[in-house]
Description:
Elements: H1 12-39, H2 42-59, H3 70-93, H4 97-117
Helix pairs in contact: 1-2, 1-3, 3-4
Amino acid sequence: MKDTKKLDKRDVGLAVDLSFALKNLVGAEDHLYKSWIETKNPMFKELLNKIRGIRSDWLKALVNDDGSESWCISKHLLGASMGLVEVGVRFNQTGQEAECNKAFQDSVIVLEEFFKLNGFTEEGEVISSA
Length: 130
C-alpha cells in the first residue's frame, strides 16, 4: 500500500484501531527476528522484510513527517506499549495483580504519548479506547 494517506486527526477511533494493528506488526517483527536468530531459517528473514514493509506503509498514515526522529520514536513507542501489554498479561497469569495493573496503565500512557507526538491528542487528553 504505497499510497497510504494520512488519517484525519479528528478520527481518533480509527487511529487507535490502526495503532493496535501496528503494535502487533511490531511485535511480529520482533518474533520473526528472534526466530531467525534461533533457527537461521531464511523464511523468517523474508517474512520479517514483508511484515516490516506493511508496517512501514501503514505507519505513514499516523506519523508526522516533520524532519525529526518522530518515525523511529513512534515505532518504538508502539513496540513498548505492546511489550507492556504482554508483560501485564504474564503478571496477570501469575496472580500479580498490582504489577499487571501497572504494566497495563503504563502501556496506555506510552500509547497516549505516541498520539500526542503525532498530533492526534493534546496534553492531558486521554485516549479512551486505548
